[in-house]
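Posting this for the archive.
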Amino acid sequence: MSQRKRLSSARHFCPLLKLSPDAFSEIASWLYVDEVVNWRKCSKHVNSITKEKAYWKTIHFRGRKLRVPQLPHIMSAYTTHLAPRFDTTREFLNCLKSLAKCVNLIVLDLSRCTLCSSGFLLLVDALPNLKRLKKLILDSNYSNSVDESALANALSDSHITHLEVMSSNIGLVEPSLADALPDLKSLTTLDLAFNNIGLFFCLALAESLPNTQITTLNLGDNSIDTACCSTLAEALPNTCITDLNLRSNPIDSAGCAALAAALPNTRITTFNLRGNMIDCLGCSSLAAVLPNTRITTLDLARNHIGLAGCSALAKALPNTRITTLDLAWNHIGDTGCSALAEALPNSCITDLNLEFNGVGEAAGISALAGALPNSCLTTLKMAGNKIGVGGCSTLAGALPHTHLTTLDLKCNQIGDAG
């Protein structure tokens, strides 16, 4: 929610407070109701409720005593976005009891609310009434309270398109949520990052995915190994997935090879493998199939592809659709940079990230500067390399003839002369 809207919210709900904009902003961060469909339309309703003293409480703010409305009572059919922030479990449960009234709720964010069992049951009971709910966020609510089976049943008749259940130990007990995915007919985005889902959940997920409409799937930080990759790879060609995030998993060359073999038969356009254990062999397997895929965005940052992997990738790039490539933290050095530079004029790449790769001002930066005028690059990130005054001068000489709009050279040694 924008700062302007948040301040507007604070002014509307605290009409008796005469505070500076920064104070309004701070109070707004406590609000339970983030946004409503039409402030003018509901203002009469809100004012009629807040006039009653029973719905006001006194808070201590910057040494002053202020009266503010107890907002759970204000939640109504006009509420469309809700992100509750509470000091006590009691306040939170009171809010959940009012959820059923919010029939026009579109976004419900209950992340980091430490849902207790009773609170979760209240949520499950309210969900069938929220017919317009599109986005549900339950991040950081752990498995002792998030009953996957009950949640899946409550969502089966919903029209939710976006579901986030990050950091909640999903799948450790039973893969009920994965089994229920085909019943969530409107779901297109599923975020299950930071859950350590393991092979058992992956098997259930792979079986369900072909029967869903999910296009964006985030399985980052989930201890997905080679066996899990093989399981997912078999299912991917039969799914609608276009954006797949597998960042920060222990995926090695074998796992990467299994995924690579499936890619030509998938719809994937955005592929995130950042922070895995992919070496030159895994990168070579991936590079071999890239020309036959639909991938336009590829993130291989923080792997171990080295010079050999970078060279294999560079040879494949002119025959791919890739426009955004991230190879940061991969130890490609000057030679790898030169190989990429040679491929750039014949590729579709507009956004290239080579941060922290040990690229100096010798052959690597010179080759890159020479290729820039004939490339499509608009964004180049070279932070954290070994570029000195000479390298910076070489780049500067080429810049007037390029399409670059963003150039990042921070954490180099260019000095005042550069």
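Residues 318 and 347 are 4 Å apart (CA to CA). The longest strand covers residues 56-61.
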